[in-house]
Design a protein that fits this description.
Elements: E1 6-8, E2 11-13, E3 17-19, H1 28-37, E4 41-43, E5 47-48, H2 49-52, H3 57-64, H4 70-75, H5 87-100, E6 105-110, H6 119-126, E7 131-135, H7 147-164, E8 169-173, H8 180-190, E9 194-197, E10 205-207, E11 212-214, H9 226-235, E12 242-245, H10 252-261, E13 265-268, H11 270-293, H12 320-327
Parallel strand pairs: 3-4, 3-13, 4-6, 5-6, 6-7, 7-8, 8-9, 9-12, 12-13
Antiparallel strand pairs: 1-2, 10-11
Helix pairs in contact: 1-11, 7-8, 9-10, 10-11
The structure holds flavin mononucleotide.
């Protein structure tokens, strides 16, 4: 019998498949179906700072930089209530989901500034969440705003939330930091127990006939796995926090790659939005078959086996590999 279990944020999970934050967690029935199919844990859709508080001066400061005014910035945000439920409903939903399923439920906050809104971390904990994921999603547009200031702000936010809760805290990041290893070390010192790599940034497109900006959300493809895969392989062994991989996980092979890079769990949103609970059972069945066929007895056995610590050629993850890859292209017409 193959042992698929893994430990993430101090939680013992029956396998490494976690449902990433998405609208699927808005319906208890959907989560139950995924649970029956074997999903090991679920991250809830996010509660946004903007939904909790509008009058925070600090939020005002960061949102307004690069736009004409805070109120203008707010007009681009989805209506409260249309994208998500009101904050108190969110907390009630955490409680409801916890009562309805047996798998761990991870709450999710999405914000940028320190302030009163962070009390929701505590409320989500008190509603029974097993852990909290903090999504740091910020697009710097102001040329006068230095990276140091932004990073300090994010580290302070993590420290602030850490001190207000007892449950484990994971931080979900974008890949856009100048020195990611240094920044994640700072997050670790600030009290993060886990890192979720990486957030997907939804890029606006142009409608060239209407001269409009179109905001269509496209689901991910498997090629997006490579970015988090590389960074997890690079960070594994260098920091003392658990790593979760998100973006581009669509198959059992993707889960295996995430584990070999050094992730404790692999998270899925797009695949579950497309394939529903069937995707979970299919991937788990394929995982078992692959592991049996390759004589593994457990998932934990392979975690980190392809990280920079373990591979014969660690430079494959670094600059040194760049010229080699470019010169390997043979498919010229
Ligand atoms: C429709 C949709 C809604 C999402 N909502 C959230 C959210 O509320 N909070 C969050 O942190 N991530 C959210 N995400 C991002 C996913 O959790 C995930 O990190 C991202 O889609 C990459 O994983 P994937 O390739 O499996 O889709 C959302 C993604 C989708 C497609």
């Amino acid at each position: 019998m193959i042992d698929l279990s893994t430990n993430y944020l101090g939680l013992k999970l029956k396998n490494p498949l976690v449902a990433s934050a998405s609208p699927l967690s808005k319906k208890v029935e959907q989560v139950k179906r995924m649970e029956e199919a074997g999903i090991a844990a679920v991250v809830m859709y996010s509660l946004f700072e903007e939904q909790i508080i509008h009058e925070s001066l600090e939020l005002d400061y960061y949102l307004a930089r690069g736009t004409e005014s805070f109120s203008e910035a707010l007009t681009y945000l989805p209506d409260i209530g249309t994208y998500s439920l009101l904050p108190d409903r969110y907390v009630a939903n955490v409680e409801k989901l916890k009562k309805s399923v047996h798998i761990p439920v991870i709450g999710s906050l999405n914000g940028v500034s320190k302030g009163g809104w962070t009390r929701y971390a505590r409320l989500i904990q008190d509603a029974g969440a097993d852990a909290l994921e903090l999504n740091l999603y910020y697009i710097p547009t102001d040329p006068s705003l230095p990276a140091q200031e932004l990073e300090d702000m994010q580290v302070n936010l993590v420290a602030d939330i850490r001190s207000s809760i007892k449950i484990p805290l994971a931080v979900k990041l974008s890949p856009f930091y100048t020195s990611l290893p240094h920044f994640v070390k700072r997050l670790e010192k600030a009290g993060a127990d886990g890192l979720v790599l990486f957030n997907r940034f939804y890029q606006p497109d142009f409608d060239i006939e209407e001269l409009n900006i179109s905001h269509t959300l496209e689901l991910s493809s498997a090629s997006e796995l490579r970015l988090p895969l590389r960074w997890i392989a690079l960070l594994h062994g260098q920091i003392g926090v658990d790593l979760a991989l998100t973006s581009g996980v669509h198959s059992a092979a993707d889960v295996l790659k995430a584990m070999m890079a050094g992730a404790k769990v692999s998270m899925m949103a797009s695949e579950l939005l497309r394939g529903g609970a069937d995707s979970v059972s299919n991937i788990l069945a394929e995982l078992r078959t692959w592991l049996e066929g390759h004589e593994y007895t457990s998932i934990q056995q392979m975690q980190g086996s392809m990280s920079q610590e373990s591979v014969a050629e660690p430079s494959a993850f670094e600059r040194a590999n760049y010229m080699k890859v470019l010169s390997s292209f043979r498919d010229l017409p």
